[in-house]
Amino acid sequence: MKYIGAIFAAILVMLSGAAVYAAHPSTIGEAESSTASDLIVVKKPETTNSATTKTTYGVTGTGKNGVSVAYYKYDGSSYSVILNSEGKTANTKIGAAGVFYKQVSLSEGHNKFAVRAEYKGLSQVIYFDINLLKKEVLDNVNSFTYDVQSIFTGWI
Fold this sequence. Notes:
With about 160 residues, the chain is α+β, with helices and mostly antiparallel strands. Helix content is about 25%, strand content about 40%.
C-alpha cells in the first residue's frame, strides 16, 4: 500500500510541474522571440496595423488543437497579460474546431497587443496594433471619399 502511495505522490509531483510549465508569463517584452511559427494564425485583425471606431475589438484566429493562447496589452514598458473578470490570466485552449476568440477593450488612440501561444514547450508570439479613431475622423474620411467620387461622377 505504501508503494502505491509513493507512486501516486510521484505522479502528482510530475503533473504539478507540468501545470506550472504550461502557465503563460504575466508580462512579455516587445521583442520576445518565438520558438515556433505554426501554432496559431491571427485572422482578425487582418494586418499588423488596424483602425476602428468601436471601443471593443474581437481578436480571432485559428490554431492547433490543445494550444493555449494568452492575450497581452502594452502598458508603456512591456506587454501585460489581460486578466478575466476573476483576476486570472484570460487565456483560451484551442479545441477540436481549431479557433480562438477574445474581445479586447480599446482606449482612444494607439493600442498595442500581443497574442502568445504555447504548446508542448513551444511558444509563438504575434504582435499587432489597433488604433481607436474618433467618430469625427471617420466622418471626415467618408466625406472626403464622397467628395472625390462626386468629382468623377459621369466621367466613367
